[in-house]
DNA sequence: GTGAAAGCGCTAACAC
DNA sequence: GTGTTAGCGCTTTCAC
């Protein structure tokens, strides 16, 4: 018993393939009710399932959306993937997933593969937006960038600057004046925007005194190292990561540093590293050190203490992206979504429960 | 400029479609080197990319593997997905991902969709193994179950019992005698195996006195609730989840309970909830309460204190699964992989660093 | 070594 | 309302 095809159904129903197609697809031609029933019965009886591959070949659409992220094991992207898959499924689409591993050339290879698979559209957190955009345009494949994106392409981003400002201000409102920052890698678009937001907020209170920031990867170890650089009374060992200068001038010799009262961490993962470093240094969060972070991934809620964070609207991003990809006539999209402050324990606000 | 097809290339190279196919696929017939070069040039010049859909229609294979998990946002499954995608990519396959949301009927729908897409094989963490197996067998689609699986199907599991024994023994070795357990939901295959392991280990030391366990979902809140039930001196509010009896007889009235010195948590997520509950109750981990957990997902390393855990060999599972799916002649597979104890801080062992 | 042609399973004109 | 038929882009037999 090989694959059941439309021809088999047609035979069983005593009709033609075309009619079978019409009832399966509800068109484009009408079918008499009686015939319809016979076909339905035949489908039932034969166990026929339309072949998506053949369908895609003739019809044009594969009903498949691609998703490329740097690392699906990262909770932020995992949550994004879950949201995209859900939105796609709700729209009857299936999603092809791949990790670029943060590597531009891997990403381009992946794109090639997806294009050969004739995906209908792509959601991408890109390492090489310009190149990706070019490739996708040439293939006439719809796509939306999340985060970094070329000017002319559809994209969805969040207000990184505004979020960082809000986070830092919240710390300011707690009465802290020495608020340091753990920034993302230099040159990263998102990292720079968040750093700028922090800068903007602390600059508003010149009494803030010596304010410092360090630039580290968006990882747990990145946050750990950053925290050590920020919190350690002694200077870093040679070869350690570079510290940023105070915005009020170069900070004094390490021995003279005043410990920050609070830290704005640019990502949840970094904040997790910071928490560990604080624990290692015997510092209590939020009593000795207040912390606000950015992302709002589930990890921030699980941490002890729970992290006050700037929440990204992941579900909204996913829905918007999917909608854009399947919209019959899509408008140019260049969304910047609002982020919200989620107050939990790490900033020093009163405890709330799970 | 529409899609570039093989015919275009053939025309440009002054040859036939068949020859183009031969050079693209390196067979099945030989091609003269000179012709080959002309074809290659034509491909380059036209920007031809083979169409995967058409290829799949005739060839049979879509070079696509499916992955169905309950929830990709769960770090354990996210890590699994990353590993599966990586293994698949290394083998030239692409992965179609979907979330069953822990729901059997959603899972079956998903299966249907994947089958229509003609996936070559499927890796599944199933909610309805028997039904899924039947469907997949009927469609002659290869598949491997992770975790719960029908007897006759290919499956990969881990030694849940042995892992739980090792975890509990480690706690015993720390000198604790009152070791409670947070089990997964009753009826869950994996949960039962881990619970049995804990039982086995504590039974070996009858001096353990009153040992208790509670059954809760494999979630952070499940762990939180479980911890409250285990650690609170006062009885639970009415309507709270049921507590298991002591294996040495029903435990006494709540007021008379002795607080456990240690807890074996059946999953990392539950342990995270436990950590939070302990903090809320003013209990220090590991000083007041030692903890060992199960899974070894990244979250366990990030927690403060870092969690001592039973690590599942995720990469190995993924590689084994993918290999099984693409193996030209697959042997029946019924693997039970070993798990390892990863010692960190939560059990009371001396601190180690990030 | 190369090419013509027969499908893979389906949809959608286009006739009837 | 229903059936015939021409492809969709590709692989692969089979002749030359």
Q: Which CATH class of the largest domain in chain A? A: Alpha Beta
Largest sheet: number of strands, sense, barrel closure of chain A: 6 strands, parallel
Tally of discrete structural domains of chain A:
3
What kind of oligomer do you see?
Answer: homodimer
How large is the radius of gyration of chain A? 26 Å
Query: Biggest interface in this structure?
Result: A-B, 58 and 58 residues
Order of helices and strands of chain A: HHHHEHEHEHEEHEHEHEHEHEHEE
Low-confidence stretches of chain A: 235-256
What's the CATH architecture name of the largest domain in chain A? Answer: 3-Layer(aba) Sandwich
Protein structure class of chain A: alpha/beta
Strand order of the largest sheet of chain A: 2-1-3-4-5-11
Total number of β-strand segments of chain A?
12
What distance lies between the first and last C-alpha atoms of chain A, to the nearest angstrom?
55 Å
CATH fourth-tier homologous superfamily of the largest domain in chain A: Response regulator
Helix content of chain A: 40-55%
Whole-number mean pLDDT of chain A: 89
The general outline of chain A is elongated
| Count of alpha/pi helices of chain A | 13
Q: What's the CATH topology name of the largest domain in chain A?
A: Rossmann fold
Strand content of chain A: 15-25%
Explained architecture:
- 2 copies of one chain form a homodimer.
- With 354 residues, the first copy, chain A, is α/β, with parallel strands linked by helices.
- The first copy, chain A, has 3 domains: 6-50, lambda repressor-like DNA-binding domains (434 Repressor (Amino-terminal Domain), Orthogonal Bundle); 61-153, Rossmann fold, CATH 3.40.50.2300; 160-312 and 341-353, Response regulator (Rossmann fold).
- Chain A has 13 helices and 12 strands.
- Chain A has helices at residues 6-13, 17-25, 33-46, 52-59, 75-90, 104-116, 129-138, 160-173, 189-203, 220-231, 268-280, 298-302, 314-326, and strands spanning 64-69, 94-99, 121-124, 142-146, 155-158, 179-183, 213-215, 262-265, 290-295, 308-311, 334-337, 340-342.
- In chain A, the strands form 2 sheets. A 6-stranded parallel sheet of chain A has the order 2-1-3-4-5-11, sandwiched between helices.
- The first copy, chain A, is elongated, with a radius of gyration of 26 Å.
- Chains A and B meet through α4, α5, β2, α6 and α10 of A and α4, α5, β2, α6 and α10 of B.
- β2 (94-99) of chain A pairs antiparallel with β2 of chain B.
- The first copy, chain A, binds a DNA duplex (16 and 16 nucleotides) through residues 3, 5-7, 15-22, 24-25, 28-32, 35, 50-51, 53-60.
């Amino acid at each position: 018993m090989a694959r059941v095809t439309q021809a088999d159904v047609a035979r069983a129903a005593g009709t033609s393939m075309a009619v079978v197609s019409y009832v399966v697809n509800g068109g484009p031609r009408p079918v008499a009710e009686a015939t319809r029933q016979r076909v339905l019965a035949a489908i039932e009886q034969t166990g026929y399932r339309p072949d998506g591959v053949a369908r895609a070949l003739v019809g044009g659409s594969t009903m498949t959306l691609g998703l490329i992220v740097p690392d699906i094991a990262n909770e932020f992207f995992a949550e994004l993937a879950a949201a995209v898959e859900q939105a796609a499924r709700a729209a009857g689409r299936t999603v092809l997933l791949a990790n670029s591993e943060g590597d531009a050339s891997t990403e381009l290879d992946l794109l090639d593969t997806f294009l050969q698979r004739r995906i209908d559209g792509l959601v991408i957190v890109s390492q090489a937006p310009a190149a990706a955009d070019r490739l996708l345009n040439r293939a006439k494949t719809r796509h939306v960038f999340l985060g970094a994106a070329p000017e002319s392409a559809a994209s969805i981003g969040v207000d990184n600057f505004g979020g960082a400002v809000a986070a830092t201000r919240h710390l300011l409102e707690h009465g802290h004046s020495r608020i340091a920052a753990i920034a993302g890698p230099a040159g990263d678009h998102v990292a720079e925007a968040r750093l700028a937001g922090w800068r903007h907020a602390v600059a508003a209170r010149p009494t803030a005194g010596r304010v410092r920031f360090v630039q580290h990867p968006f990882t747990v170890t990145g946050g750990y190292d950053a925290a050590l650089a920020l919190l350690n009374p002694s200077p870093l060992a040679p070869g350690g990561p570079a510290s940023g200068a105070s915005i009020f001038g170069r900070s004094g010799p390490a021995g003279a540093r005043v410990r920050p009262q609070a830290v704005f961490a640019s990502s949840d993962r970094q904040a997790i590293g910071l928490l560990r470093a604080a624990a290692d240094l015997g510092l209590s969060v939020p009593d000795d050190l207040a912390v606000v972070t950015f992302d709002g991934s589930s990890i921030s809620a699980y941490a002890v203490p729970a992290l006050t964070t700037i929440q990204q609207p992941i579900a909204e991003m996913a829905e918007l992206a999917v909608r854009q990809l399947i919209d019959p006539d899509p408008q140019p999209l260049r969304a910047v979504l609002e982020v919200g402050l989620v107050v939990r324990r790490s900033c020093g606000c009163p405890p709330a429960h799970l």
